[in-house]
Amino acid sequence: MTAPATDSLRVSGATLHHEVRGSGPLLLLIPGGTGGAAAFDGVVDRLAAAHTVVTYDPRGMSRSTLDDPEAEQHVAEHADDALRLLDLLSPDAPAKVFGTSSGAIVALHLLATRPERVERVVAHEPPVVEVLPDVATHRAFLTRVRDTFHTHGLMPAMTVFAAGLKKESDSSEPEARLELPPQAAARAERTMGDLPYFVGRIVPSFMAYAPDMDRLRSLADRLVLAGGRDSESELPWRATACLAERLGVPLQRFPGGHVGLTTHPVAYGEFLEASLRTPAGV
To answer: Out of 131, 192, 193, 226, which residue is the most buried by the measure of CB atoms under 10 Å away?
Structure first.
């Protein structure tokens, strides 16, 4: 993998660690879960052949520190962080943006609020449960995750979280499965260290986010929505499929499941590369 140029950027309330590779039009990659910049290790070289690729650790994750470690987290603030990176690295031209999971929610908000800065957004399985017809069930689920975390701690909350994400037809005992990184021990350690922050502050806030449907519908020609081939009927997939139907855009099928970026990096990278150059809506 090509060594990146690394730097830090001061934003309101945080310092963002970011990495830059390649040359050409800017492509910003927004990770989900606790992945951070390293979540894209398996695809970044392919993408950097035609783009200046920017990866980063979202505020509060890994090497991107918060001024106030207890600060509440909000989608709009994370989207503003992404905007600051665009303004720094592509001040005169709109950029392409990819986001996965919670990072896809950030990408949707960035498109809705600052469309002049975004040429295209590819959003893989944003868990926007507020668009679902049975939203009350999922609001109750998020409340259970939050209450379990505060009352019983991280791993019991992860078990509740995993159970709420599983396929509707899956009656097996849920696993507290994490978004596993590649084998690097240092990255795995960082991932585990960020879990309390992710479960305690990112999950309840981000999964309560309600997209601006009218605004996104007017920008649908710039939006690609994607779901994993292996995650159909899981909660993030169902939310994304419902969003696609309501916006009138097709749902692209990417290799793997919700974490196909990690489990199928070569095939996933090929699909992502194609989705960045194929006209949206095709």
So the answer is: 226
Instruction: Output the DSSP codes for 6-56.
Output: EEEEEETTEEEEEEEEE-SSEEEEE--TT--GGGGTTTHHHHHTTSEEEEE
Evaluate whether 268 touches 256 at the Cβ level (below 8 Å). yes
CATH of the domain at 109: 3.40.50.1820
Alpha carbon separation from 276 to 17, 41, 106, 208, 213 (Å, rounded): 25, 18, 18, 28, 22
Distance between CA atoms of 273 and 15, rounded to whole angstroms?
29
pLDDT 10s digits, 123-137: 999 999 999 999 999
pLDDT tens digit string along 12-28?
A: 999 999 999 999 999 99
What are the angstrom distances between the C-alpha of 195 and each of 60, 136, 165? 11, 26, 16
Threshold 0.90, pTM exceeds? yes
Is 56 within a domain? Answer: yes
124's CB contacts (< 8 A; 6+ apart) are: 98, 99, 100, 101, 104, 226, 227, 228, 240, 254, 260, 261
